[in-house]
Amino acid sequence: MLDCRSVDDLCAAIVGLAVRGAPALGAAGAMGVALAAATGEPLDDAARRLKATRPTAANLAWGVERALAASDPAEEAVRIAADDVARNRRLGAHGAELLPEEARVLTHCNAGSLACVGYGTAIGVVRAAHESGRRPSVWVDETRPVLQGGRLTAWELQRLGIPFTLVADVMAGSLMAGGEVDAVVVGADRIAANGDVANKIGTYPLAVLARHHDLPFYVAAPLSTFDPECPDGSQIPIERRDADEVAVIGGHRLAPMGVQVENRAFDVTPHELVTAYVTEEGVAATAVAALDAAASA
Amino acid sequence: MLDCRSVDDLCAAIVGLAVRGAPALGAAGAMGVALAAATGEPLDDAARRLKATRPTAANLAWGVERALAASDPAEEAVRIAADDVARNRRLGAHGAELLPEEARVLTHCNAGSLACVGYGTAIGVVRAAHESGRRPSVWVDETRPVLQGGRLTAWELQRLGIPFTLVADVMAGSLMAGGEVDAVVVGADRIAANGDVANKIGTYPLAVLARHHDLPFYVAAPLSTFDPECPDGSQIPIERRDADEVAVIGGHRLAPMGVQVENRAFDVTPHELVTAYVTEEGVAATAVAALDAAASA
To pair with A16 at 20 to 30 A between CA atoms, which of A122, A135, B19, B66? Predict the structure, then answer.
């Protein structure tokens, strides 16, 4: 159990990926503002530092802003966290209807309960399909460099009793070409107004491959991941992370000393490659439609 | 230095990847037959065991057959090894002409001198461009699961003084979308009569991405990699390897115990996605043209 007693503690936990995943970052951002209020730190400065930890993450900024705007940041943070599971269950139920019986779903990174307060978004879709008796199975991308798929998604699916097979990320093409995938379902870190999606590095190649093989590519994300202020993917800041995430694993060097490494944490999938957006309010073909459905809900 | 004193020693070295890479396997296969002849092992049985170590590798079977058909297998094995560097230099010179000045080349796996007796095929192309003053640079895919890119290609390029940047395989889409790649150059483990290419798992996604971004996708391989007996990629046997190549690195577990893993060593890139084949005899648009050029050379 990680105990964050200051905004600095929380920022370090976020940078170190102890807390990660879009919806979880939303709750964490709000909690961070509440923490600043409780400890007497200036809220504006805390908000700025929190948002700077993961610049790509829309939910983080959303959670911070929600708490800043609330009369009682702590109450608002608790509400966001409490809402998360219910929202994800609704999202999952909508998404499950997109999957055929015994769907073989390919997913990337971890958009499961460990990325949220609970239940999961992309994994929530699989989970809802599993709970309704549709018997889905999952190809789990290990998700280099940080291996959120192999470490987190595999662990979650093992506990849930949902059949899955772990693969190196490079296997996706072979699986699709072999007719072994029915749908790709991923989460998102930020969705621009035009529907362009920033998500874990390696998502965009899956979208291109899915299109090449005429497979559906679904983005499962709560409405808090949509950023209507951001016109398109070119305006989404892409976080670059440390070279050693690529060059070292568990103290074991994977490349010669001194090599130059480029390590982008996210890539952008253009909206044209997204078959549908799955939110807590339903399934929408475009980001505009997803936000409209929310506004009229 | 690894000293193989029997066909069993050599088979173990090949299975354990101490000897790997298409051209190197061609020489090793021939050496294996020569070793059987020298130690008095039955040649047919040695040939069968050698070929079974890496079923996808065309060069391995080619080297074995060449030595079997020779009156003096040892002499033939030495000739194959001695020819390899000269062939790769010619291949490299042909390929270099395809690259613009300051080309940013993306490559996968290791098709360098460590995959050959010397010089390299895909890396031979980059090397020839470098030697002729064209100042190429390389994006080196780390190449999960065995990391031939991060461990071998990075080491070779570092020694050669050719600028390169190591990336996780999942970065290729982001690099191409950002206009940061001019060409993809890869090696091959077997090329079918119709031009379909078996190469390291993850090659096919690069070909799909290259096509999506209108970038050239070049396959650099000596003629010994072409298998005119194999009609198309569907007939190429794809080697499956141990789960622990994915789940463990250097004794460090990357996934929960007991997870199911699918670990294919190769994938198949359909000939439609190959811009050109680069061999020691020149550059050809199709496999048939490559073999014709060889026949008339």
Answer: A122
Chain A residues with beta carbon closer than 8 angstroms to that of B242:
none
CATH architecture under which domain B89-296 falls: 3-Layer(aba) Sandwich (3.40)
Instruction: List every span in chain B annotated with CATH 1.20.120.420.
Output: 7-85
- Torsion on CA atoms A157, A18, A69, A122, rounded to nearest 10: -20
Q: What are φ and ψ of residue A98, in 5° steps?
A: -80, -20
How high is the ipTM of this complex? 0.96
Tell me: the pLDDT tens digits for A229-252?
999 999 999 999 999 999 999 889
CATH superfamily, domain A7-85, is translation initiation factor eif-2b, domain 1 (1.20.120.420)
Question: Nearest chain A Cα to B143, which residue?
Answer: A170
Structure token digits, residue A185? 């379902």
* Residue A169 sits at the chain B interface (C-beta within 8 Å): yes
Kindly state the helix (H) or strand (E) to which residue B191 belongs, with its residue range. strand B190-192
b/e code A188-201 from CB counts within 10 Å (16+ = b): bbbbbbbbbbbbbb
Q: What CA–CA distance (Å, rounded) separates A56 from A61?
A: 9
